[in-house]
Amino acid sequence: MNKKVSIGHIVREYVAVRPCLQEALKQGILNYSAVARKISNELREEKNIIVNIPAAKMALLRLADKLQLTTRGLEEKILHILAESSLQIINDVTVVTAGDEIDIPKVYELARENRARFIQSTRSLHTVTLMIDQGLLKKIRESFTFTPIKIMKDQTAIIITSPLEIVETPGVVAYIMSSLAYNGINVTQFISCHTDTILIIDRKDALRAYSILEKLILKARKKSIKDSS
Predict the structure, then answer these.
(1) Which residue stretches of the chain are H helix?
(2) What are the φ/ψ torsions at residue 127 (nearest 5 degrees)?
(3) If I label 129, which of 15, 19, 97, 141 is the partner at 20 to 30 A Cα–Cα?
């Protein structure tokens, strides 16, 4: 049976799970009538819900106004953080995922003994992922008995060091990741450590990723100088 629902609620729910549509609404660069028709058609076909197209368009316009208002101040905060950020790149990184039999503290001790250039780790209930200096892999395999689930060689770590405000500012990581995704760059591992954002990227994409991030930072710095003058 067809049923009527709050169009404002329907539109908000529809937009909430579509990041690209959210961005278009924030920028005010979409055909509201076409999107309203799309919402109406999809809901009728998938959920048997009847949505009035003009009402959906008005709901989209109201939502766009709200998003643009709230986004303006947030984007300024994000750009300020990027303007104060710096980049570091470390090549020859290997990512090893294994069961939880690996003793993480001992791995870090081994890394210190061998003066490894880079080591990071993440842990879930049943697996451990190590992001390590490629030269450390052989020593780890000699020191520990474990069966790797997956090994990814020829990775590169890009470390973004930001001011303390990043800890309490939403959207900074999303801003960075969306810029990389738009350019077809896959982040194989992501770690947030206080004010450091660590991205692990395949070597073949690393220089391009670094260039994109550097342009973001330089653009933010240029805007910061312009705003302060």
Answers:
(1) 7-16, 19-27, 32-47, 53-83, 104-113, 136-143, 172-182, 203-228
(2) -135, 160
(3) 19
The residue type found at 198 is I
Distance CA 228, CA 52 (A): 47
CATH number of the domain to which 184 belongs? 3.30.2130.10
How far is residue 108's CA from residue 128's CA, in Å, rounded to a whole number? 13
Check whether residue 109 and residue 52 sit in a common domain.
no
Listed as ranges, residues in the chain with pLDDT below 50 are: 1
Q: Are residues 23 and 100 in the same domain?
A: no
CA distance 120 to 83: 26
Kindly report the pTM of this predicted structure.
Answer: 0.80
Examine the domain organization and report whether 62 and 89 are in the same domain: no
Query: Nearest 5°: CA angle at 60, between 56 and 62?
Result: 115
For tokens 């049976």, what's the residue?
A: 1
Q: Are residues 88 and 200 in the same domain?
A: yes
